[in-house]
Each structure stands twice: as structure tokens, then as C-alpha cells.
């Protein structure tokens, strides 16, 4: 059995999503993975059981990525971000394709919400292009006539110009985004798969080592940990991989 102290710095870089449909299942996942410091609450759990899970996480001094991926007109995005800003989450997502006005409004509104409840505002980060989409999807279905890495970069730059703290991108685009957007821009990478793990619906994946070497600040890793026969062991194996870089 590995010692948790060995994995502290690597563990802080890994965000594990609570992609379950009830608070009970979420708590069961939390209990299986006591070493995880940073949890993601996304659409499935938030729509299923609302904000009470955020209180449970805060009681346990966990960090929270509130991944609600807002994508709407600017007035509606602002209202949602103001409400989300009240919860004291660390990170909050909006889609870059909501556009410049909505992105700027998101940051301001999240700050207002946080001030209302006297908590730190969440860092608002933008989805550049979902990691479940391929270059083929971008060109043929979304009809976007721009190469995929360039498109992700342009969405990240739009987010940066609009005052957002960072972006969500696949590890495959992280190196270019890091070079262009600089060291202070947060890069959060889902679509991360340890060598040999099932990709599922992830179309642009890389290993944890590759993602960190490309410049990711945080890795979002779900099923390779949560559906493993021993989730705590799977988490520790990834931490060990990162400690070895
Ligand atoms: O915003 C996200 O976290 C996100 C963006 C994205 O482009 N791709 C993506 O997979 N995610 C999330 O990252 C997690 C990936 O989970 P696994 O594929 O199980 O590792 C899921 O909770 C997704 O909602």
C-alpha cells in the first residue's frame, strides 16, 4: 500500500469527476477515494441533486470544479454565473462559443455572486472544443473550416481576451495553448487516459504524463479511476506516474 504523502503534489493536479446520478452514489465515490483533493460536479449530478453535494464537499475541505458548461445568450449566462458564483467553487465552466459578450458577463457575474455570499469567486474557464469531438466532426458536422488545433487556440484566446482565467482543452492542444497564452493561463485537460485504458467517447486523448508535459495545470480523469476494480489503487498508480516525470 502506497503512502499518501508521496502523492500529495501529483494528487493536487488530478480532478476526478463525480459523474453519477445521486448524492448517495457521489458520497460512495468520495469514500472510496479519500486521497482525491479536487472533485468535479458536472451536469448529471447537479441536475440530479442540486447544490447540496457542494456543501458535502466543502465540509470535507475538498476543492470543487463546478462544470456546468453554460452556453446561452449573455444575459442568461450572467444570471447562471451569478448564481453559481455564490457556491464557493474553485472553477466554473462556460463554452467559449457563447461569445465575447457572454464570456465577459460570466466573469463579472461570477464575481458578483461570490461577493453576495462572501466567498472567493470561482475561476471562470472556457470550453474550447469538447474532447469528444474529432477533426472530422469539426469539419463535416460543425462545418468549421479551421484546423482543429487552430480552432481550439482561437477559442482559448477569445477566453483570455474576455478576462477568463483559463480554458479546457484536450492534452493534444495543450502545448500550443501554453506557448501562446502564457504561464498564467490555466489549462484544464480532460480526455486523459493512462496507457492501455479504454478511450470511451474521448476522441483526442493522451496519457497523464503527456498532458502534464504539454503544460496542463490540471487533469480531469474519470472512468479510468472511478470504474476501476480498485479506484484508490488506480488513482495512486496515476499519481506515481506523475511523480516520476
Ligand atoms: O469540462 C469538462 O470537464 C470536459 C470537457 C471536455 O471537453 N471533455 C470532457 O470529457 N470533460 C469532462 O471530463 C470528464 C471526463 O471523464 P472520463 O472520460 O470518464 O475521464 C467528464 O466529466 C466530462 O464531462
From TrEMBL:
It comes from the Bacteria. Keywords: Decarboxylase, Lyase, Pyrimidine biosynthesis. The active site is at residues 67, 69, 72. One of its GO terms (molecular function) is orotidine-5'-phosphate decarboxylase activity. Residues 13-238 form the Orotidine 5'-phosphate decarboxylase domain. The keyword Lyase applies. Its EC number is 4.1.1.23. Belongs to the OMP decarboxylase family. Type 1 subfamily. Catalyzes the decarboxylation of orotidine 5'-monophosphate (OMP) to uridine 5'-monophosphate (UMP). This is Orotidine 5'-phosphate decarboxylase. It comes from Acaryochloris thomasi RCC1774. GO terms for biological process: 'de novo' pyrimidine nucleobase biosynthetic process; 'de novo' UMP biosynthetic process. InterPro entries: Aldolase_TIM, OMPdecase, OMPdecase_bac, OMPdeCOase_dom, RibuloseP-bd_barrel. Homodimer.
Amino acid at each position: 500500500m502506497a503512502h499518501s504523502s508521496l502523492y500529495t503534489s501529483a494528487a493536487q493536479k488530478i480532478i476526478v469527476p463525480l459523474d453519477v446520478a445521486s448524492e448517495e452514489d457521489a458520497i460512495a465515490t468520495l469514500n472510496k477515494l479519500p486521497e482525491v483533493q479536487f472533485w468535479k460536479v458536472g451536469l448529471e449530478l447537479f441536475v440530479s441533486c442540486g447544490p447540496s453535494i457542494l456543501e458535502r464537499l466543502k465540509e470535507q475541505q475538498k476543492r470543487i470544479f463546478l462544470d456546468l458548461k453554460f452556453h446561452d445568450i449573455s444575459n442568461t449566462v450572467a444570471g447562471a454565473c451569478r448564481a453559481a458564483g455564490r457556491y464557493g467553487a474553485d472553477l466554473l465552466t462556460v463554452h467559449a462559443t457563447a461569445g465575447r459578450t457572454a464570456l465577459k458577463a460570466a466573469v463579472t457575474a461570477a464575481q458578483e455572486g461570490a461577493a453576495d455570499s462572501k466567498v472567493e469567486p470561482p475561476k471562470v474557464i472556457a470550453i474550447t472544443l469538447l474532447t469528444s469531438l474529432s477533426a472530422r466532426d469539426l469539419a463535416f458536422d460543425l462545418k468549421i473550416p479551421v484546423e482543429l488545433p487552430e480552432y481550439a487556440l482561437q477559442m482559448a484566446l477569445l477566453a483570455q481576451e474576455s478576462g477568463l482565467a483559463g480554458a479546457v482543452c484536450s492534452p493534444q492542444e495543450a502545448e500550443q495553448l501554453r506557448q501562446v497564452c502564457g504561464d498564467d493561463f490555466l489549462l484544464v485537460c480532460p480526455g486523459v487516459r493512462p496507457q492501455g485504458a479504454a478511450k470511451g467517447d474521448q476522441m483526442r486523448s493522451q496519457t497523464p504524463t503527456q498532458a502534464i508535459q504539454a503544460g496542463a495545470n490540471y487533469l480531469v480523469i474519470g472512468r479510468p479511476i472511478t470504474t476501476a476494480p480498485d479506484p484508490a489503487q488506480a488513482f495512486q498508480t496515476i499519481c506515481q506516474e506523475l511523480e516520476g516525470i
